[in-house]
């Protein structure tokens, strides 16, 4: 592949469109939350990463798959069908930032017209469209519970109760085995034993739905430090070798969606989310490697912060 990043971004744009079309079709025909193999959170994460990737601008972009923030909007629409809070809360922020940056190229009058249309469309979707009902369903009951203590309108409170038991038990296990953890195969046995009479609530779970707690259970503080250092080093390298701020923003969005998702799930424990993560990092790394090799062939001795230099 002559240009891996271009191929990846174009593929992400096609994938975002297909994900939205299929998700909307399934929502209309089957109803309920849309997921990958029945896992709504996994679908939301993959669709979110695809939208972030699709928003990376390309030189001489295809007329049919143009650059722009619309990919984040389309990705957000697909994610809404999954009703996954961990991704829903961050993707609109990314779309808003990219929209503001994209519209700066137009005149003040054109920007004003565009913002008026956008605000009207958002208001319509929230008030009379499906967006408002989905957000209310997934957030309103939870907010009401923490504000008043009434749980009648919180449809999935049982999920929060399970996580509370899981995280409290996991924290106790980690406190007893802080350095090396208890291993990935036996960790849930330890967690269920710590849960006592509430152990039945955790039947069928293979991890504790929190990336940090999972890693501490698996390999302790030592493992968590190694994992954090690995990803931080990759992030720093890709940041330094990025050729535009748009690519750096994509890195920030990716880190934020991983962090948000990792608070309630774990992007490193499902083959689909792992593949999505690795494809994103590999595509950006391939682009960085191509730029560095091109700079060396041109006789440049330094290539820092994505800028060629003869220093």
UniProtKB/TrEMBL annotation:
The keyword Transmembrane applies. It is found in: Membrane. It is a multi-pass membrane protein. It holds the Pfam family Wzy_C. GO terms for cellular component: membrane. The chain crosses the membrane at residues 7-28, 40-57, 115-135, 220-238, 250-266, 272-288. Residues 72-227 form the O-antigen ligase-related domain. One of its GO terms (molecular function) is ligase activity. The keyword Cytoplasm does not apply. Keywords: Ligase, Membrane, Transmembrane, Transmembrane helix. This is O-antigen ligase family protein. It comes from Brucella intermedia.
């Amino acid at each position: 592949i002559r240009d891996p990043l271009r191929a990846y971004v174009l593929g992400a744009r096609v994938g975002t469109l297909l994900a939205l079309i299929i998700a909307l079709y399934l929502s209309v025909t089957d109803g309920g939350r849309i997921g990958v193999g029945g896992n709504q959170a996994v679908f939301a994460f993959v669709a979110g990463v695809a939208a972030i990737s699709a928003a990376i601008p390309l030189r001489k972009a295809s007329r049919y798959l143009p650059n722009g923030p619309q990919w984040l909007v389309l990705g957000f629409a697909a994610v809404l069908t999954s009703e996954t809070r961990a991704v829903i809360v961050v993707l609109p922020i990314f779309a808003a930032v990219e929209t503001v940056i994209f519209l700066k190229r137009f005149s003040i009058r054109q920007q004003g017209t565009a913002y008026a249309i956008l605000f009207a469309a958002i208001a319509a979707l929230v008030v009379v469209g499906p967006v408002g009902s989905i957000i209310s369903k997934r957030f309103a009951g939870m907010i009401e519970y923490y504000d008043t203590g009434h749980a009648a309108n919180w449809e999935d409170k049982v999920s929060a109760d399970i996580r509370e038991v899981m995280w409290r038990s996991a924290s106790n296990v980690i406190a007893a085995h802080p350095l090396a953890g208890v291993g990935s195969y036996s960790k849930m046995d330890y967690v269920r034993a710590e849960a006592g009479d509430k152990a039945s609530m955790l039947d069928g779970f293979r991890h504790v739905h929190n990336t940090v707690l999972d890693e501490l259970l698996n390999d302790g503080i030592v493992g968590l430090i190694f994992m954090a250092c690995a990803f931080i080093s990759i992030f720093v390298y890709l940041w330094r070798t990025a050729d535009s701020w748009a690519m750096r923003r994509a890195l920030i969005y990716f880190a934020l969606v991983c962090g948000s998702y990792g608070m309630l799930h774990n992007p490193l424990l499902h083959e689909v989310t792992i593949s999505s993560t690795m494809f994103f990092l590999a595509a950006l790394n391939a682009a960085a490697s191509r730029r560095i090799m091109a700079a060396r062939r041109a006789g440049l001795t330094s290539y820092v912060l994505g800028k060629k230099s003869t220093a």
